[in-house]
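Good morning,

Both structures are done.
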Amino acid sequence: MVITPEYTWRQHTGDVTCVEISNCGSYVVSGSADGEINVWMWDTRRVIFNVKGGHSGKGILEVVIPPECTAEDEQRYAPAEVEFITMGRDGCIRFWGVFETTETDPTQDQNGPFIPLRQLVRTASSGSTEAGPSFKAPVLPNPNSDYGDHVTSTTSYSVFKRGTKAYSVRPVATLWHSSFSFCRIKLSVSPEGDMCTLTAPADDGIMRVYCLWGMVPDEVPEMKRKFHPIHDTLQECYRGKESDLPVRFIRDLLPVKGHPVGVCMAFDSADPEWGVVGYESGEISLYSNSALVGMQKLFTEPVMAVSLIEKDQNQRYVVVSAGPEDQLIVSGYSAKSGTISSLSKIVLPSKGCSSVSRSPTNKNSICTTFWDGSAAIYNVKTGKQISVLDAHSKSCLSSTWAMVKGSSTLITCSADTTICIWRI
C-alpha cells in the first residue's frame, strides 16, 4: 500500500537532516546541512523562528526536544529555559531557549525574560516573523579538539513580533562533543517519568550519558578520557557568564577493551537504563546502565541505524539494525541466557537505510528511510512490509514518529529540502 503525505513543508534551502516534534504537539524543530534551524508551529504550518549559522556555519546533524519536567521534587541540571537541543558538525551540542528581546539585535538584550515556547505558539497566529540582522557571533574555542576552526561565524536570527513585543530564539549553553561523528544524540525518558537523559558520542567508540533532570547518584564514575575528551565545564554563549554543566554526567558506554570498533555510527535507547550502539566495524553492543551485556557482529560495513524495541512476549529486548546492504537484521537479547542473537532478517527494496524509528502505538511497527528518497513501514515480528511512503525526490535522511494530539504521526525529512507529514 502506497501512502501519500498529508502535508509538505518547503521552507529550508538545504538538505533537511533532522526533525523533531515537541511532546505537547504544538511545535516542530528541524535542521539542515547548511546550518539552518527552523521552528515551526504545528497548527498553522508556518515558521515562527529561523536561525542561520547557529553552529559556526556547519551543518545540523540532530535536534531533540526535552519533555517538560513536571515532578517538582526532581533535580534539574539543564537550564530551565532550554526548549530544544541541537548537535552540529562544528563539534558542539547547543541548548536553545526563547526570550523576549529587542528588534535590532536579539543578542544585545541580556536580561529579556524567558518565554516558554509552548505558551508562545498557542497565541502566535496573530504575530509575524521577520528576518533579523546578521552579526558576528562569538564561537567558544574547543579546548579538547584539534578539528576545524572555532573562531567566529556570521549568524542571523529571525524576530517574531506580536503587538509591541518581540521574541527570538538563542543559545543558552554549549557543550562540546566529538568533532568527528556520524552518530546522533538521543533523549530518553524513564517509564516512570522521573528521569530524562541525553546520550552523545565521544571519541574512541564511547557514548556518553548525561542527565537533564531526575535523581542521580551523588557519586558517579570519572569520565574515561582519551585523545579528545569532552570538556566538563560550561560556558553560556551570549549570556556573559559561566556556571556548571547544563547536564550531569552519569556514565560512559565503553566498548570492549582492546577490541577495535571504530567510531559510533548509531545509537538508540528504550529508556535511560537500556541502550544499543552501532559501530563502524559493523557490530552492535547492548548496554544495561554502564554494563555491556551483549555484542554481535552483523555487517561487513558500518551499522547505519539501530532501533531498540521494548521487551517482547518472551521478555527479550529486540534490536533492529541496518547497514548499507539491503536488509534489516532483527536481534534479541535474553536476560536469562545473557546472550544476544539474530532472530530474523527483513529484505529491503533498496540498499542504504538511513534511519529506523519506532511506532508510538505498536512496538512491532518500524519506519525505515532510504537513500533513494523512499520510506517504508515494516512489521518486525512478521517481517512483512505494511506500506510504502513515496514523496521525496532525493535521499530521505531521517524520521520521527510520535503521537500528535491523539493521532499517530510520522515526519520525514530529505535532501530535497522538504519535510513530509504522514498520518499512519
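Second structure follows.
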Amino acid sequence: GSTPCGQKACVHVHRVFPYLVVPVTEADVVEGESFLSKLRAACNSALAQADQFPSKDVPKLYVFGAVFVRGRKFYGFHSGDSIFAKVYLCVPSNVLKLAGLLLSGLVMGRSFQPYEAHIPYLLQ
C-alpha cells in the first residue's frame, strides 16, 4: 500500500515463517526438546515422502522448527490454557499438506488435530 502522502515501500521481513499448531500431551511436554526434535524430523520426513518433485541430490528442509506454546482452545468451553507445539514451515504451500498428514496419523504414528492451518500465510 501507500501512505496518505503517496510514499510506497517494499519490505522484506526476515524470520517470519508459516506455521500451524497441534495440541500435545503432558508427557510430550515433559519429554521437552527431545519430543520437538522427533516431531520436526517426522513432519519433515512425511512432507518429503508426499513431495511430488523430490530432489535427488540435496535433501529438502520442509520444517524450519517447532516450539511449545501456551494457548486456549478455540472450539468448545475450556477453563484454562493448553500446551501446543507450533510447527514452523519453510514454504507456505506445505501448511495444508502437513495438516492433512498430521490429521491422518502419518506423523509419529498418531493423529494430531492441527489448528490455525486454514489461516493464509499473509494474515498470520
